[in-house]
Amino acid sequence: MEGKNFFRCFFFICSVLLITLFTIFNFPNPISSKVELLQCATNSAWCTSKNRILRHPTAASLPHDHTSDVPHHPLDPLTIIEMNKVHKVIKSLFENSAYAVHSLILEDPDKEVVLKWKKGDALPERKASVIARASGKNYLLTVGVESGEVVEHDTSHISGYPYVTLDDMQKVMSAPFASAHFNRTIVERGVDLNHVACLPFSPGWYGEAEDGRRLVKLECFNTEGTANFYMRPIEGIIVVTDIDTNEVVELVDKSKHIPIPKAAGTDYRLSAQNGPMIKLANPVSMEQPNGPNFVIEDEHLVKWANWEFHLRPDPRAGVMISRAKVLDMETGLFRNVMYQGFSSELFVPYMNPEEAWYFKTYMDAGEYGFGLQALALEPLNDCPRNAQYMDAVFAASDGTPYVRSNMICIFERYAGDTAWRHTESPVVVDKEIREARPKISLVVRMVASLANYDYVMDWEFHSDGLIHIKVSLTGIVIVKGTSYVNMNQVNQNEELYGTLLSDNIIGVVHDHYVNYYLDMDIDGSDNSFVNVHLQREYTKGKSPRKSYMKVNKTVAKTEKEAQIKLKLYDPSEFHVINPNKRTKVGNPVGYKVVPAGTAASLLDPEDPPQKRSSFTNNQIWVTRYNKSEQWAGGLFAYQSHGEDTLQVWSDRDRPIENTDIVLWYTLGFHHVPCQEDFPIMPTISSGFDLKPVNFFERNPVLRVAPYVENELPVCKAAVSS
Ligand SMILES: *[C@@H]1O[C@H](CO)[C@@H](O)[C@H](O)[C@H]1NC(C)=O
Ligand SMILES: *[C@@H]1O[C@H](CO)[C@@H](O)[C@H](O)[C@H]1NC(C)=O
Ligand SMILES: *[C@@H]1O[C@H](CO)[C@@H](O)[C@H](O)[C@H]1NC(C)=O
Ligand SMILES: [Cu+2]
What we know:
The chain is mostly beta strands and 721 residues long. Helix content is 13%, strand content 36%.
C-alpha cells in the first residue's frame, strides 16, 4: 500500500514535467528533449507513466484495421483491396468450379525496376503470383492486380504439389474415422474414439507408386488428460489418405503391443504444474523512456541506427528482408548490402526406417508454408515489452484475404554486451584510460509452430554492419511409443532409434536444416565469391619458426566452384566482394558469411529425402541470380522428386564472377533427444553472421557515445492498481 502511494506521489510531481516532455517530443529538437529526459529519469516519472506500463502507442503498434491499406513501396505485400481484386479474377478464371488457392502473394517487380524506384515515383505495375489447384492440376499464374490480365506459366515439367492449405489439413483430419478398421483398432488399443486427434504429416516421396495423388500420412494421438498429446502416440498406425478426395488409401496398423504412454507429467501449461517454482522475484526488463530508436515508415520500411530495410511477412518464407542498406558515416550515404534474404526451405529427417516412421522427412516451408504456420506472438514473453508488432495479410484457400495479427515483432536489444572496449593501464599512460561502448541491436522475429515444433527465427542487425541470422528450436519433440519403461529392459544391441525419455516414450534422433537465400548486393549487383583459404606454409629454414598460416584467395569462376563443404582442419573464410569497388587503400569491399550451426547430413546422397533436400549437400552455395530460383527444395516441394532444387541449378555451373549472385547458407542441427527435452524442450539456438570485411574504411562504431548513469531509467516493477 505504501509503495503505491509513493508512486502516486511521484506521478503528480512528474506529471507537469511529462506534459512538457510530450510537447517537446512533438517538435524535432532532440537536444532539448534529452535535457528534460535526464531530469525526469532521476525522478523516475517514466517508471510510473502509463506509457511504460502499456507500451508506446505508436502507429505501428496500434491494432489496426487493414481494410483500406494501400501499397507504398514496390515490394510491399498485396493489400486486402488488391487481394480481393485478384480473388475475383481467379474465381472467374475457374468459372466458379472447384479450385483451391495455395499461395497468393506479390509477384516482385523485376530487380532492375525496384533498384531504380525512388520514394515519390509511381509504383511499378502491381502483380500477384498465384499458385492454385483445380481439376487435379497445379497452376502458376501471374495476375495483373488492376488489369486482371492472367499469364499462365508452364510447370508441367516440375514434380510435386504446392504446400497444403489450412483447409486441406482441417478436412483431412477426420478422414480416418470413416474407416471401420481404424475405429476398431483404436478401440482395441483401449483408446476412447472421442479422445483421438489425427495430424496430417507430409509423406515425403519414395517412388513413382506414390505419384498421381496428393497424399498425407495421418498419425494419431490420445488427447485424454493432457494438452501435450504428442507424448501419447498411438504407435504404428499410419492412415495414408488422399487429400483431394479424403479417401483412405492405406491403413498401416502395426505395433499393437505398444501401450499408449501415460498422460501424467506431460502437460507443459502453467496450470498443470505442481511443486515449487523457480522464482526470479526481481523482474528484468528493458526500458525505453524515449520510445524506440527505430521507425517503420509506410508499414514496411524499417529505419534504425545506420540501417534501413524493407520488411514483409511471407506465407512461405515467414519473414522477407529486402533492400537492406547501411549508412556509411564517412560519406553520409546509404550503401547496398543485401537485395533480399529469407529462409528458403527446411529439412527435418527423422532417423527411423520403420514403416510408421521412414517417411518423416519434412520440408516445412515448401510443404506447410513456414509463414502460414507463424501464429500471433505472445507479448512480454516471445518479445520484450519494448517490441512493436507487424501483422500479415494472407490468402485463405478460396483466395480471400485474412489478417494474421502480431506475426512479426521488431525490438531493440541491449543484452549488456560491449560493442568495443579498451582499458589502458596507468603503467604506460599518465592516467588510466577506460573506454567501453554498449552493444545495441535491432531484432526482427517470427515464430513458426509446425505442429509440434516451434522455430524462433531472428534477423538481428548491428550498427557495426553485422547481420546475425539465428534459428532457435523449442516446442515438442515428436516421439515414438515403446513398451520399455527402463533402459535395463533393452538388449545391448537393440536399435532404439533414439533415447528413452520417459515411460514408454522414445525421442527419435533427427536433424533440422534451414536454408537461407541471401541475394547479396555489395555496393551494387555485380559481385564475386572469394574462397579465402587459410593454409599452412613452411619457412624452409628461413626463420626460427617452422611454419605459419597464410591466406590464399581464389575467386570462384562458376557455380560448382562455390559448392562448399566446411572443413575444420582445412579452413577458409567465404567473402562476397564487389570487385569493381575498392576502399581507399585498395581492398575490394565485401561481406563474409561466418558459418555456425554446421551439422551436415549423413544420409546417402541418393536416398530420396536427401535428393529432395539436396540443398543440405553443402553448407554454402553461390548461384547466378535468377528470379525464378528462390526455393532451395523446389517450387512444389510436396511429394517432389528432387529435380527442381538448388543442387540441380548449381550443377548447371553457370559463371558467377563479377555478376549478380545469390549466396545460400544451410544452417544445421543434429538432434539426439535427451530427457531434458521431455515434455517440452528448452530452446536451443544457432546462428550465422553476415559480417563486413573491408566494407568500411575503419571501425564503423567508433563514434558511438557511451551510456551515462543519468540517461538510463531506474524503475521498479509496474504498480498494479
Ligand atoms: C468411427 O468413430 C467415430 C467417432 O465415434 C464415428 O463418428 C464414426 O462414424 C465411426 N466410423 C465408422 C465407420 O463406424
Ligand atoms: C592458392 O590456392 C589455389 C587453389 O587451391 C592453388 O591452386 C594455389 O596453388 C594456391 N597458391 C599458393 C601460393 O599457395
Ligand atoms: C532460371 O531458372 C529457371 C528455373 O530453374 C530455369 O528454367 C531457367 O533456365 C533459368 N535461366 C537461366 C538463364 O539460367
Ligand atoms: Cu529437434
